[in-house]
Amino acid sequence: MGSTPAEVPCDVVSDNRSGLGGGISDVYGEDLATLDQLVTPWVSSVASGYSLMRDPRYNKGLAFTDKERDAHYLTGLLPPVVLSQEVQERKLMHNLRQYTVPLQRYMALMDLQERNERLFYKLLIDNVEELLPVVYTPTVGEACQKYGSIFRKPQGLYISLKEKGRILEVLKNWPQRGIQVIVVTDGERILGLGDLGCQGMGIPVGKLSLYTALGGIRPSACLPITIDVGTNNEKLLNDEFYIGLKQRRATGQEYAEFLHEFMCAVKQNYGEKVLVQFEDFANHNAFDLLSKYSTSHLVFNDDIQGTASVVLAGLIAAQKVLGKSLADHTFLFLGAGEAGTGIAELIALKISKETGAPIDETRKKIWLVDSKGLIVSSRKESLQHFKQPWAHEHEPVKNLIGAVNAIKPTVLIGTSGVGQTFTQEVVEAMATNNETPLILALSNPTSQAECTAEQAYTWTKGRAIFGSGSPFDPVEYDGKTYFPGQANNCYIFPGLGLGLIMSGAIRVRDDMLLAASEALAAQVTEENFANGLIYPPFSNIREISANIAASVAAKTYELGLASNLPRPKDLVKFAESCMYSPVYRNYR
Ligand SMILES: O=C([O-])CC(=O)C(=O)O
Ligand SMILES: [Mg+2]
């Protein structure tokens, strides 16, 4: 980042309290404020009556009991019937299924989240396989594209360049104080859909819904943030309903300084143990932000590390089906950005740990193709830094099919963000070279998948093990049903986050990602394998997350990076006991 303020410590940048203490123990500066300092006048009071029904955290709708209605001045504000949460859930699922347009389902679910939070999470947890594609990929992608038009209530915190110099103040406007997880985007690379600017907010909101539903993090501890430094999307710049700054993106020093102010303000406001998940930043910022802040903050990048951990888990599991080890494979990637190089690096690390070979050697089993063809040593000088470790000795190869024929990979992984790039010729070549080709089409949403599940099974005559980033329905081919796996980072980040939080982690390390991969791979059952699956079904995801959390926490303790001491004996039980349950509470 050149002349950016990499060396400026956080306290110098964001502590505008001229030497007064406070910091993390008095984050709102109330105790130590002097008369000339401004404090945020937060009040808390017991809600009742109309305002209780309007508070999504406590509203239960028709499930308020008669006793509660009497005690809380609700009598007459609701029709007389009292419904259980289960009946409410059945009714809502029935209503949701009436919508045929996915975006309508998305909007109905967002309305529910804003109306009755516990019911929203109950629905999501109990119907995860059906509702994941609505609150998450692929529908969330469409929601982001149309976010300006469907915008009703803000669901997270917007920090735009207009707030430069006072980001700490903006953070204090957020009503919840006990924040444990922040998912932040700058909207520059939303899924495989490109720059959606401020409308990328749908992604942090969706990811954090999954933190709660799949990983059991309390909703009030989750904070979605969108950083608005402008957009280069002409369509949005000319859209009268666009909700963000109508200016081109800030870059270089201006960008770095703004992000630095943000990262410092976050640490100052929430302390050392708040987890910051970077999401859907463009390559040119993602790698720099991760390397810059991983030594001073609890951060990870979901697109680089979360995706890597999930894919590695699938590959580890697949070895049981194939009867091989990872080192026996040759890997070829289409796409050498965050996901591609992130996955490649974690595979190389894992093979290195398994075989004892140096990582420089194990990287040689892995090849990447970008928009200019195979990454080879003759291109090294012109490559971005994150691609350079993959520039192996080979003559230039122009395109993917050329690379498949030259390298003869056993595993083909798509992380290009460009749909339909695994052509019939490419997939057939994989099938010619391999008895059981492993094909992962990871780009999101569905429209950007490198090939569909049906294409993968048809073109390999049912021999492929196939996984994708966005969900595909089971495929009938030649009288047999094939179940595609969803190799999406949502298998990992909720459990990883829970493990980090419950152990009081202060840094993320690659060994924790490896621990998460191994824990996920261990959850795949014989029955799953028999169905051709290399990931367990989402229906057990909370149990899976608890196991991932326990493994991550164990590694955190082992590395001396845990601050929640002493270490609980049974980490799986401890993880389960930490998980938020959306069942209604009784009110006095
Ligand atoms: O959001 C998802 O489905 C996976 C992901 O991180 C991405 O594609 O950027
Ligand atoms: Mg992402």
UniProtKB/TrEMBL annotation:
GO terms for cellular component: chloroplast. InterPro entries: Aminoacid_DH-like_N_sf (IPR046346), Malic_enzyme_CS (IPR015884), Malic_N_dom (IPR012301), Malic_N_dom_sf (IPR037062), Malic_NAD-bd (IPR012302), Malic_OxRdtase (IPR001891), NAD(P)-bd_dom_sf (IPR036291). The keyword Oxidoreductase applies. It catalyses: (S)-malate + NADP(+) = pyruvate + CO2 + NADPH; oxaloacetate + H(+) = pyruvate + CO2. One of its GO terms (molecular function) is metal ion binding. The gene is BnaA02g35010D. This is Malic enzyme. Its cofactor is Mg(2+); Mn(2+). Divalent metal cations. Prefers magnesium or manganese. It comes from the Eukaryota. SUPFAM superfamilies: Aminoacid dehydrogenase-like, N-terminal domain (SSF53223), NAD(P)-binding Rossmann-fold domains (SSF51735). Pfam families: malic (PF00390), Malic_M (PF03949). Belongs to the malic enzymes family. PROSITE patterns: MALIC_ENZYMES. Residues 304-557 form the Malic enzyme NAD-binding domain. SMART domains: malic (SM01274), Malic_M (SM00919). A divalent metal cation binds at E279, D280, D303. The active site is at Y136 (proton donor), K207 (proton acceptor). It comes from Brassica napus. Residues 113-294 form the Malic enzyme N-terminal domain. (S)-malate binds at R189, N444, N488. GO terms for biological process: malate metabolic process. Keywords: Metal-binding, NADP, Oxidoreductase.
